[in-house]
Amino acid sequence: MFLTNDLNSQMPTVELLLALQSHVSLPIVAAGGIGSKGDIQKLVELGSCGVQVGTAFLLCNEAKTSKVHRTSLKSNDQITAITNVFSGRPARGIRNKLMIELDYISEEVPKFPYASIAIAPLRAKAESHLSCDFTPLWSGTNRNACEEVSASDLIKTLTS
């Protein structure tokens, strides 16, 4: 996805899959916005050899997702954006104060892994007050499949 720093040129998963097929002879694994059996079937029908599901697992019982992160994932009014302020590398997360204040993509952010180390004290203090202002709230654009179930139950739902 991140072939350029121009975030406006990024493509949705289906568009990217279709564009890559005519230029790549290797198997393509689709990732991004996948949260249902229907999503998986569509991508396989379009030529993906497999999929990577991410956000759907964040509320699973086995996930180590923090309390403030879980609360944010359950909220339907949250907006996601791509940022590098938490890790030094671009990734999608639910918008919060740190992303807005430091700008979503900043050249001044320390390189990976130092950005997360630098904000750790702020994050810990904020989370102790149940604030997510300094927490990386990783999330894709499709949180519809996020449920508090076991990972095995989610896999069964996605594959049966």
Automatic annotation (TrEMBL):
Pfam families: NMO (PF03060)
InterPro entries from the UniProt entry: Aldolase_TIM (IPR013785)
GO molecular function: nitronate monooxygenase activity
Name of this protein: Putative oxidoreductase protein
Biological source species: Photobacterium angustum (strain S14 / CCUG 15956) (Vibrio sp. (strain S14 / CCUG 15956))
